[in-house]
Amino acid sequence: MIVVMKTAATKNEIAAIMSRVEEAGCKVHPIHGEDRTVIGVIGDGTSIDRYQIGRMRGVETVVPISKPYKSASREFHPESTVIQVRGVQIGGPDLAIMAGPCSVEGRTHLIETAIACKEAGAQILRGGAFKPRTSPYSFQGLGEEGLRYLAEAREATGMPIITEVMEPGLVPLVAQYADILQIGTRNMQNYALLNAAGKSGMPVLLKRGMSATIEEWLLAAEYILSQHNNQVMLCERGIRTFSKETRNTFDINAIPVAKQLSHLPIIADPSHGTGKWEYVGPVAKAAIAAGADGVIVEVHPQPDQAWSDGRQSLKPEKFAELVQQMKVIAQVVDRNVPEQPEPSDMWQVVMGR
Ligand code: PEP
Ligand code: MN
User: Fold this and answer.
1) What's the CA gap between 95 and 291, in Å, rounded?
2) Are residues 39 and 126 in the same domain?
3) Are residues 24 and 143 in the same domain?
4) Beta bridge partners of 159
5) Residue 347 DSSP symbol
6) 210-239 burial code (b ≥16 CB/10 A, e <16)
7) What is the distance in A from the centroid of ligand 1 to the CA of 16?
């Protein structure tokens, strides 16, 4: 950072700033101009509170040079992070395709949907067992029963599972079943939850808060990373704007911006980003073209009967078409959608139970 002193700053005021910076373990590089002095701070300034320095006597302004987040930034970690989840790579040359229902609604429903998603080309199964609903009267999720069905669907299809966790106290339970913990938009700044997810050592998908700046989002990721958990992926899921035609406004800019500022993989959620199934495909394709490392898409065999988010859910056949189209777009940006393995006999075994 650079501390710009007021023209009237006294020698003592300048000296006070320099000693405060040196006490924090940084070096100072003062430049005494004709009108004023500016002080360059050299070294790791993360322990210096720039707002506190800004309030000291004689200071005109403080100009930050480095980003306030460190572990999440590309500045400190130029190599892109690749996360491995049961053989699926997230952030590598292959795109990660995650799909499934908004909520887990029952055993057969989930396993059937999971098989349809896998046949269409998904590699990771999504499904909420603990649901963050705007109304307390709406379906809140099946809880641990839903987690058990997710584990069964993983067994049946071989797909790793991602599911949301909403409370720090539930992290150990959800981590027992899940392969990736999802932190939802409403909890992006739930710092106790971020710390607990960080401590679990599990891969975490961190959705952007619906009104969060990119800097706030990366600082939220920094909480998880600061617990020595480097398996964090970001997820753009749309932000609040004045536009009423869609549920949220998918911020396509966030993808190249986050890729430039951070080494963490970024996943696009065109389902919550638009709120209407007919816009999911176009926005998913745009996100791949913009450099996303994958997508997370809500799929339901009967969207009009879904217990949550039916309006934005794709039928499996529409999702299968979308995967084929994403394959074409992926080539243009030097990415690849991996081929699906042949269906295994195990599916019949599970379905026949
Ligand atoms: C979801 O994935 O179903 C969900 C609730 O997402 P978000 O946190 O983005 O609203
Ligand atoms: Mn949903």
Assistant:
1) 10
2) no
3) no
4) none
5) H
6) bebebebbbbbbbbbbeeebbbbbbbbbbb
7) 49
CA of 304 to the centre of ligand 2 (A): 14
State the CATH number of the domain containing residue 30: 3.30.70.1140
Task: Quick: pLDDT tens for 127-146.
Answer: 999 999 999 999 999 999 99
pTM > 0.70: yes or no? yes
**Which residue bears the tokens 């009104």?**
211
CATH number of 229's domain: 3.20.20.70
Query: How many CB atoms sit inside 10 A of residue 52's CB?
Result: 10
Number of domains into which the chain is organized: 2
Cα of 129 vs centre of ligand 1, distance in Å, is: 12
**Nearest ligand, CA of residue 309?**
2
167 shares a domain with 282: yes
Nearest-atom index, ligand 1, CA of 128: 3
Ligand 1 nearest-atom number relative to CA 185: 8
Dihedral, 111, 113, 117, 120 alpha carbons, nearest 10: 110
Ligand 1 atom at minimal distance to the Cα of residue 187: 8
Question: What pLDDT shows up at residue 44?
Answer: 80
Please give the residue range of the domain that contains residue 263.
Answer: 83-349
pLDDT, tens digit (0-9, with 9 covering 90-100), for 296-333: 999 999 999 999 999 999 999 999 999 999 999 999 99
Nearest CA among 130, 257, 263 for reference residue 193? 130
What is the bridge-based pairing of β-strands 59-63 and 161-164? unpaired
Q: Are 343 and 119 in contact (CB under 8 A)?
A: yes
Residue ending a domain, choose from 63, 95, 113: 63
